[in-house]
Input
Amino acid sequence: MPRPVLTLLSRDEVEEIHSKAISLLESVGIFFEDKEVEKFLLDNGLELKNGRVLFREDAVREALSKAPRKIPLYDRDGNLVSVLGEGKTIFNPGSAAIKILDFGSSEPRNPQLKDLKDLVVLVDALPGFKAQSTALVPSEVPNEVKDAERLYVVLKYSAKPIVTGAFTVENLPLMVDMLRAVREDYRARPFAIFDVCPTPPLNWSRVTSRNLVDLARLGVPAEIISMPGLGGTSPVTVYGAIVQHHAEVLSGITISQLVSPGAPVIYGGSPTQIHPYFGTAVITAPEAVLVTLAYRDIARHFSLPVHGYLGLSDAKAVDYQAGGEAAYTAVLAAVAGFDVASGPGMLEFESVQSLEKLVLDNEVCLMAERVARGFSVDAEALQVIREVVLEKKGNFLAHKHTRAKYREELHLPRVWDVSSRGKEKKPSLLHWAHEEAQRILREHKPPMLDGDRLALLDSVRKRLWERVGQSPPAI
Output
């Protein structure tokens, strides 16, 4: 089946970047805020110099040899959804937005738990998203429990796999207890991925380094999200940012494999361009996207599953800019074969979610998926052309071949203006997306968790809220 292929780096270029990243790790090293993680690395043969841990090439090479080449990803009920490492893109909404933009509003607001539930139900119904994410941070929930409370809502209202993350050291084991409550074989058949982010340049915070250690110990897939900001937290050149990005991800892979050889890890990232005039972190800038495409080739060189922040927008409204940025990056994600692509629904530098944009991005992701799928050889095509042209057997539109093939061959968007201009005035595409989101929220019945599994999950949630001396709110 012919399909489009996108490659940026040659094998020699990948090996050169890898060599420079190793040089950084051996000479500059990584600073660890958490001294327990630092001690663990020193106890495992790494060296401390000038307060920074130096990573030897042989230690990195051994870690890369032990990291899994493929990670099967399941849904909440144990059904296989995809195998990460095979290059079939799973789109999921961008995670951890602190604002939501309502239809008709020009200013985003603080989201509530109900907004998160609505978003989860909407994403559950949209076929372009094969996975969920803990996409909103509910403002009324105490800071000490925000991360785990988000996971609870997704587990309760959708069966799709989840991309999530912890904001604290203390809550990550409890969040894994939530997974265990839903399905005891969460290690053998993983259905949640946790993001962990080094702090550029070449640092790991206490929370993220401890989270990475705990994830490896508990057997939960960790997505290592390096975030070089070109011109701010990394060199301004694309090449320099790629080298730094690779060094940071290599440090995370090495940590995970030292904790537990074979621990599932995903090579990820969220590079940005730090705008020289406004200081904003622009994730859809061409330079940031080039870093993302380059590290995709690096990950593939080492046969590692790969993630990217793609299919999102830096715009402040669901407008032409939002559509253009989401579409071009989503198509790149699918054609380049990212295993996980996070970002749809997002606006304003990864800080805002929009239900209407999710509906529109669903169409974008489905179209990107269709382009990436390519096409198969049609052995009947020549005969069909002969029949229509020479034998005058009707036309292509009415031909039985068209009736038999069009559903499998054509992607027909639901919320997209592809009809002819009529007498009746159509609503704007944004208004149409709003109506579709509201229809789904009225009509879609999500596969809610129930029975013993919900009771077990509720008991873990109760323990979570006991940490702040409160009872869990109804949701």
Remarks:
- The longest helix spans residues 238-259.
- The longest strand covers residues 80-84.
- The mean pLDDT is 97.
- The two ends are 46 Å apart (CA to CA).
